[in-house]
Design brief:
Layout (H helix, E strand, L loop, with lengths): L7 H5 L1 E6 L6 H16 L4 E5 L7 H12 L3 E3 L3 H10 L5 E5 L8 H10 L7 E8 L4 H11 L4 E7 L8 H10 L3 E5 L8 E3 L2 H9 L18 H6 L2
Helix pairs in contact: 2-3, 6-7
């Protein structure tokens, strides 16, 4: 039931924005994806942009990652600056945009999201970053607000800190959000991997007593037990 788009950020390239609530690990995740792309195509083919001018040290954190990888980092304070910076990076295969983390009910969030889709000539694919440690209702509320713009997929972070994945996977299924990557630590880029949906489902269903995962066979139908596990 989980839609898995795999490594499509690295494969398809283009302009990518990571959006999501505050504290879910967008900046670190963005650095991991940039390093993954650089390993395949070279650091001279990737560039980083931050639109976060609210959090102290936001630019400096991303600039440090950029310096280590050898790729440029720019800051954009508004839509016009974002357009200008994107034009400067027009020859890069991948441009990653780190957006400011804001609460779902922060009015500035809507302005930031609208800026990402304001210019139809600059197609920006947006991916929602959510922490697997968040409560299910909190994640649903985040999806509701961030769906103000088209979402190309999702990234789950902090799997190493999560007790149960059922709630997070349930939200993805319920909202038809494809899952691309998962992260399970702070190391860049080691703690990022392409989502293995069968493995994640097995972890979520382990609460039902599937202790021997080797004997677990995915069913085409949705049993009452399986449905309960994701509630």
């Amino acid at each position: 039931m989980l839609d898995n788009r795999g490594d499509d950020i690295v494969r398809q390239e283009g302009v990518i924005a990571l959006v999501g609530p505050t504290g879910v690990g967008k900046t670190t995740t963005l650095a991991k994806i940039a390093a993954r792309f650089a390993a395949y195509h070279g650091a001279d083919q990737v560039a980083l942009i931050t639109t976060d001018h609210y959090r102290i040290g936001a630019y400096e954190q991303l600039a440090t990652y950029g310096k280590i990888m050898g790729c440029p980092v720019k800051q954009a304070h508004d839509f016009n600056e974002l357009e200008q910076v994107l034009y400067q990076f027009r020859n890069r295969k991948l441009v990653l945009i780190d957006t400011a983390g804001m609460g779902q009910r922060d009015l500035r969030l809507y302005q930031q999201l609208d800026n990402l889709v304001a210019n139809k000539r600059l197609p920006i694919r947006s991916y929602l970053v959510m922490a697997a440690t968040a409560q299910r209702n909190v994640m649903q509320d985040a999806v509701k607000h961030f769906k103000r713009i088209p979402l190309s997929g999702a990234i789950l972070t902090k799997l190493d800190e999560s007790v149960s994945l059922a709630g997070a996977l349930s939200i993805l299924i319920q909202n038809g959000l494809p899952l691309n990557y998962v992260t399970d630590g702070q190391r860049v880029p080691e703690d990022l991997s392409v989502a293995d949906t069968l493995k994640l489902a097995q972890q979520a269903l382990s609460v039902l007593g599937h202790r021997d995962k080797k004997d677990f066979v995915p069913q085409s139908g949705r049993s009452a037990e399986s449905a309960y596990a994701f509630e």
